[in-house]
Amino acid sequence: MTDEEMSGDLLGAIKPSTLPLHMDIDLSSKCNLRCSFCHLSYFNVPNSSQISFEYFMEKIDPILKQLKSVTLFSKYEPLTCRDFVKIFNRISEYGIETYFSTNAILFTEESIEAIVGRLRWLTVSVTGFNREDYARHMGADRLDKVVANLRAINELKRKRGVHYPMLRISTVGMLDTLEDLPRAVDFAKEHQAEEGVQVTALIAYGEEMVERMPLKDRERFVRLTQEALRYAREQGVRMALQSGGMEENQAATRELGHRPCFLPWRRLSVQPDGAVYPCPVSYKPVGNLAESSLEEIWNGSALEAFRAGVNDPARMNPECRGCTHCRHKSIIREDANDYSKADVFFAGMVRKN
Ligand SMILES: C[S@@+](CC[C@H](N)C(=O)[O-])C[C@H]1O[C@@H](n2cnc3c(N)ncnc32)[C@H](O)[C@@H]1O
Ligand code: SF4
Ligand code: SF4
Asked: Do the domain assignments include residue 1?
């Protein structure tokens, strides 16, 4: 369902008994990396946890057959979940669409065997397209491992004669990495990423990142992204600026402060400690699986109140006003991109001392 279809009367027509079409599940609240730009380098996670297969079967499996799709990450690294393969195999039995984003370092023969032919979309996050740049941005000298795993995935796709997972390369767009975008295009082409390159605009979590945000030099951002988009077209590689280009973003976010968003009408976001959020970047849970079922939370008053504050400027939720979601945030508003002074962040994260 498109955003246009969701707008207007359709929103009012959603019945309380409707279940989400989609779920975002963080399988673990850990990561094997500490990328220089990531919230995990600046904020502590309240409690380090992961979803076990048994917990998954008890709390989440009962709702699976109602869903159209599942995303197996939002803020952390899904491959750090010990039961990743068992959980993924179970979800695959339902034939629903699956997707996750990963740094791709922790893939094993077993997890590659599990996903090839069954996972629909796979995003691999790479910022820095040579050994030195990758190590500087991602905090570890592991580009060779990422390349080896991408080759292993493509090799098995060929061997099995399957199209899935469709690959995409995601890279963080900061003023000092925009010149690397053509390298991202080359990398996507080399690794047969038919979904191409996606660029997420940098959110600054530390003071030293503020000057690197795209909005600090709009002319440079527009010029270099236009050049990269042209190069991508020439190379036959798809490329998308996740939050839109400057002009388009300005038009879409001028009145509302963020791009129109319908996530909480379609999906729910579950954390490994059982907390349920209305979207992957909201701060306040609308329930916990320890106390209520997903269906109760979906139809509960807390989520209903949150929905009312998503696209209405008069009563907007604070997290929607400064939305950091890669697709919905405004890239032109300072307060939606500069979190360098924030003491708390999503899912109960607290700034490191
Ligand atoms: C937080 S990661 C979680 C999933 C997985 N660990 C990964 O890296 O793909 C999700 C995405 O957020 C991007 N990201 C991380 N920090 C960012 C920031 N400060 N600004 C914009 N995008 C960022 C990453 O590059 C990655 O593509
Ligand atoms: S791999 Fe993903 S979750 Fe881990 S530090 Fe990097 S961006 Fe953050
Ligand atoms: S915080 Fe952003 S993604 Fe979440 S509901 Fe609000 S506008 Fe949508």
From this structure: no
Residue nearest atom 14 of ligand 1, based on CA coordinates: 38
How much distance in Å is there from the Cα of 231 to the middle of ligand 3?
32
The answer to the question of residue 148 being in a domain is yes
Shortest-distance Cα residue to atom 1 of ligand 2:
103
Tens of each residue's pLDDT in the chain, 353 residues:
444 444 444 444 454 347 888 999 999 999 999 999 999 999 998 878 899 999 999 989 988 888 999 999 989 999 999 999 999 999 999 989 999 999 999 999 999 999 999 999 999 999 999 999 999 999 999 999 999 999 999 999 999 999 999 999 999 999 999 999 999 999 999 999 999 999 999 999 999 999 999 999 999 999 999 999 999 999 999 999 998 888 888 888 888 889 999 999 989 999 988 899 999 999 899 999 999 988 899 999 999 999 999 999 999 999 999 898 989 989 989 989 999 999 988 877 899 98
Q: What is the count of structural domains for the chain? A: 1
- Which structure tokens are listed for 238? 């798809």
Q: Which of 146, 147, 194 is nearest to 166 (CA)?
A: 194
Ligand 2: which atom is nearest the Cα of residue 75? 3
Cβ pair 197, 237 in contact under 8 A:
yes
Residue 272 domain boundaries: 22-351
The pTM of the full predicted model, rounded to 2 decimals, is 0.94
In whole angstroms, what separates CA 311 from the centre of its chain?
Answer: 21
Residue 9 lies in a domain: no
Q: Where in the chain does DSSP place strands (E)?
A: 22-25, 43-44, 69-71, 97-102, 121-125, 166-173, 197-201, 239-241, 267-270, 275-277, 287-288, 344-345, 349-351
The residues facing 277 across adjacent strands are 269
Q: What is the residue with the minimal CA distance to atom 21 of ligand 1?
A: 202
Task: Give the CATH number, domain containing residue 281.
Answer: 3.20.20.70
Residue that has been written with the tokens 């991602």 in this structure: 138
Q: Is the CB of 281 under 6 A from ligand 3?
A: yes
Residue 175 lies in a domain: yes
**Measuring from each residue's beta carbon to the nearest atom of ligand 2, which residues come in under 6 Å?**
31, 33-35, 38, 40, 76-77, 103, 125
Residues at CB less than 6 angstroms from ligand 1? 31, 37-38, 73, 75-77, 101-103, 125, 170, 172, 200, 202-203, 205
